[in-house]
Structures are given as structure tokens and as C-alpha cells.
Amino acid sequence: MGAPDWAPRLGRIASHRSAVFFEKRVTALVAARRAQMEAGRPAPPDLLTALLTARDEGGGRGLSDTEVAANILTFILAGHETTARALGWTLHLLSRQPEVMARVQAEADGFDIDQPDWADRMPWIRAAFEETMRLFPPAPTMARKALEADVIGGQAIGAGTTVVISPWVLQRHRLLWDDPDAFRPERFLPENRRAVDRYAYIPFSAGPRVCIGASFAVQEAMIALAVILREAQVEPISRIEPRPVHQVTLRAHRPIALRLRKRQTAA
Ligand code: HEM
Predict the structure, then answer these.
(1) How does pLDDT run across 188-214, given as a tens digit for each residue?
(2) Which CATH superfamily is domain 84-262 in?
(3) 3-state SS, one letter per residue, for 11-47
(4) Cα of 148 to ligand 1 centre, how many Å?
């Protein structure tokens, strides 16, 4: 709140401790996995193994342990809570819309990761996830500092001013969306997707600093939804709508409670 940068802050001390904790744990994990693989012992087919075995197409160079650890930390810090929140809100919205749920589950029943076009075969799952991120953007605001004086939409912005860009506001704006507060995944079906203005829908931001993990996140979420929904019927427990709260990411004011029943039709 305007205190000089050198002033000690509780939050910073706590976050520094967490950063050191994560860095130590991840560095140790990378070293252990590398040793396991070099000893010829089988390694699980996960992200860590993928990063350790990745080779540059040109010269065959792999990533150093520090680079692998940095990538894992990015996934934990930037990619975990964001994707998890979006998945929670998606299951919440689907649990309240049986017709959409039925379409999504029909796609989930045919999900086969070995098909190269698996993602194209699940337009409703993708659309439900994208529409959820419109209504509940995991990162509801972003901030930028103006390098120099400017005018945006007739508004004078002084040099050094912090400008807040809010997906939450843009993505529910009445001038930009028809029936903005309604959950209507059809907006994001392939035949309608092109009508969505690139700058009216920015859950992953836009421009040169757009989220580097955007397409990974969408694919990961689609897989998670397909796997959960082909096995389980997801039903609401309470009719009380969870209230969204902005605490770094957009969370519900209390945990979203859903009942999962094993589906009779599951393969
Ligand atoms: C649904 C999931 C996700 C959402 C909604 C999301 C959202 C965002 C947003 C809005 C930004 C821009 C922030 C800003 O400029 O102030 C961003 C940046 C970033 N995201 Fe994501 N993200 C998600 C998943 C991921 C994943 C899985 C990764 C893992 C690689 C990731 C890595 C990053 C990184 C490294 C940046 C900084 C990019 C840069 O500044 O050049 N994100 N993300």
C-alpha cells in the first residue's frame, strides 16, 4: 500500500519461505528422478520424466536440472491452482445443467487419448470449460504500469499509473455478451467460436505476455473432465450458489460441495 520496497512485509517473508521450500523439494525430486533413470530403473510416464527425456530437435541437447526444476516450479505456481479452480467451477456449473451435462458425458464416454484428434472429438467439453472461464476467470484481474502517458478509450493515463484489466468485468459485460450471466457453452462451439471477440475473452490474457501454458491447461482440463465425467454422475448438494471471491485466483467463498455417484452406464 505504497510502503517503500525495502520495508519488510509479512507476506513477503512467508512467500519467500514457501519459495525456498518448493525450490528445495523440486530440486531434490529432479536429482532423484535423474539418478533413477540413469540407473536404468523404470520411471513413471509423467511430466518430470517427459522434461528429463526431452531433446532439442536440432542438436539433441536436453534440459539441465536447473531448467527442469524451473519448469516444474512454473507448473506448480502458475498452472496448478488456476486450472484446479477452473475445473471446480466447471463441475459446479455442469451439475446444475443436466442437458449440457448429458452432451458432455456422451463425449466423455467416447474419450480415447490414443486417437490423435481426441480434442476435436470433444467440442462440448472444451466449450463448457471455456464458458466456465468466461463466467469465473481463474485470474480475474491483471495489472500493468504505464511506461509513459497515454490515452485509453478517451481516458488520460499518467506515466507510472497502474492500470487494472479485468477479465471478470469484460467477460460479463452487457455490451459485449448476449445474456452475459448465463452459462451457455454453445458460444464456444467451433461454429460460434469465431464470433467471440479476441479482446472480450481473455482468461489467459492476450498479447506478448499471454499465458504460456494456455493450450496445455485447456488440454489438461479436457482430459480431467472426460475422465471424471465418464465415471461419475456429479450432482449439487446445495442449491445455495457459491459466492466468488478474488483471492489471487477466483475461488468460492466456501468449498463447492458436489456429490459424485458411480455412473451405471460407465464403460
Ligand atoms: C486455466 C489455467 C490457467 C489460467 C486461467 C492462466 C491465466 C494466466 C494469465 C491471465 C496470465 C497473464 C498474467 C499477467 O500478465 O498478469 C498467465 C501468465 C502465465 N501463465 Fe498461465 N494460466 C493458466 C495455466 C497455466 C499453466 C498450466 C502454466 C504452466 C506452464 C502457466 C504458466 C504461465 C506463465 C509462465 C505465465 C507468464 C507468461 C509471461 O509473462 O510471459 N499458466 N496465465
Answers:
(1) 999 999 999 999 999 999 999 999 999
(2) Cytochrome P450 (1.10.630.10)
(3) HHHHHHHHHHHHHHHHHHHHHHHHHHHHCCCCCCCCH
(4) 26
